């Protein structure tokens, strides 16, 4: 079993058969003041199982972590748990590159792919449990689906005039 903590770069040609890598990182190189949602990865730990079959390398990624994120509702920071479970496929033969397999010459920066998986594991709207949309004097923020419901139940509907008319007469 191999353990890598900092730069998670592996060489396609050096992987033989089956290997398991312990992964632990905060992926600090991907964070600066411009990050919108994820402000920091407090911890990210798990295993990466590598299986090489011919010119295909299968990476089974299983990670758990704690992120500091900005609320979609208020912008306030809070910690949230994530779980990442995904399979990535790499090939070193350009003619075998497909929608599901990524062509690499030899070097694979797994940090980059893990960062992408962390981003896609988050919901579009992320907020702290119990947090509500903000409102104030003369305004309120509502979800788009709530706005649609309100518009459909509004008394100013043009069909309101048809209520009470008996069309069977």
Q: Mind explaining what this structure looks like?
A:
This protein has helices at 110-121, 144-152; strands at 2-4, 9-11, 18-24, 38-53, 56-70, 77-91, 101-103, 107-109, 135-136, 139-140. β4 and β5 form a beta hairpin. Strands 1-3-4-5-6-7 form a six-stranded mixed beta sheet. The chain has 169 residues and is mainly beta. It has one domain. The longest helix is centred in the C-terminal third of the chain and has 12 residues, at 110-121. 11% of the residues are buried. It is built from two helices and ten strands.
Overall number of strands: 10
Number of helices: 2
Percent helix, as a range, is 10-25%
Would you tell me the overall average pLDDT?
Answer: 85
- Low confidence ranges: 1-5
N- to C-terminal distance: 82 Å
Described by the principal axes of the CA atoms, the overall outline is elongated
* Count of distinct structural domains: 1
Radius of gyration: 24 Å
For the largest sheet, list the strands in their spatial order. Answer: 1-3-4-5-6-7
**Percentage beta strand:** 35-45%
Taking the sheet with the most strands, its summary is:
6 strands, mixed
Q: Structural class of the secondary elements?
A: mainly beta
The helix/strand order is EEEEEEEEHEEH
